[in-house]
Specification:
The protein has nine helices and no strands. By secondary structure, the chain is mostly helical. The radius of gyration is 22 Å and the shape is globular.
Length: 234
């Protein structure tokens, strides 16, 4: 019984740490959190983070359901990546256009679209092709701590640890963004919007490059060679 509790605690801590590593990686969700936080403060920034948690939870469930399903999802890497590029380009254009107009700094949450920030977080998480690779690698990560054949309990504990760390990270990031940009002026807000637009554009180009490289590295499917008839011994 004690060994079982120790194994569950190890699994929980591992999931918590991996969740922090996953969320701490700079990416489009952070850039969108900054963009929304400049306009709507803590609640808008938190809405982006919570929206991304919805997508992360879905990927976590998919990743923990089994290797077979993940192998089938590998074929979705290209369409998911293309969707990510399109959405990131749209965000880049939207942020750049907003920087050229009147920037509402420190607007209340009621003055902005209640669903825009949340929707952005969800879409950015769902269209992130890195999630496929991340959750496909979870099998080896679990095996490294002795979980060779995860049970339902193992998956639940891992999911709980991952989501707890992701939620804490969302709260911390939203608070930091709100504190840093709370007193920012309109001029700095425009510069922030343009920086976010450039970040979205660079991320879109990065995803496009990764898709091109992975497409070039895909092994060509060769037709099977016809078998030669066995020679008869005289």
């Amino acid at each position: 019984m004690l060994a079982f509790k120790n194994d569950m605690l190890t699994l929980l801590v591992t999931a918590f740490v991996l969740g922090l590593v996953f969320n701490a990686t700079p990416g489009p969700v952070f850039a969108e959190t900054v963009r929304q936080g400049v306009r709507g403060g803590f609640r808008s920034a938190l809405a982006v983070q919570l929206g991304s948690l919805v997508g992360d939870a879905l990927w976590a469930v998919v990743g923990l359901t089994g290797v077979g399903l993940l192998l089938r999802l590998e074929s979705l890497r290209m369409p998911i990546g293309i969707a990510s590029v399109i959405y990131l380009l749209w965000l880049a254009w939207n942020a750049w256009q907003a920087s050229r107009g009147e920037v509402a700094v420190g607007a209340t949450f009621d003055e902005v679209d209640r669903h825009e920030a949340l929707r952005s977080g969800v879409l950015l998480s769902l269209t992130n092709p890195q999630n496929v690779a991340y959750w496909a690698a979870m099998g080896s990560a679990l095996g490294a701590i002795g979980v060779k054949d995860p049970t339902v309990v193992d998956n639940i504990v891992f999911f709980a640890g991952f989501m707890v760390s992701s939620t804490l990270w969302a709260l911390v990031v939203a608070a930091l963004v709100d504190r840093v940009f709370r007193r920012v002026g309109a001029r700095w807000a425009r510069l922030t919007y343009r920086a976010c637009a450039i970040a979205f554009l660079m991320l879109a180009l990065s995803v496009l490059r990764q898709l091109w490289v992975s497409r070039g590295q895909a092994p060509a499917i060769q037709a099977p060679k016809p078998s030669r008839p066995a020679s008869r011994l005289s």
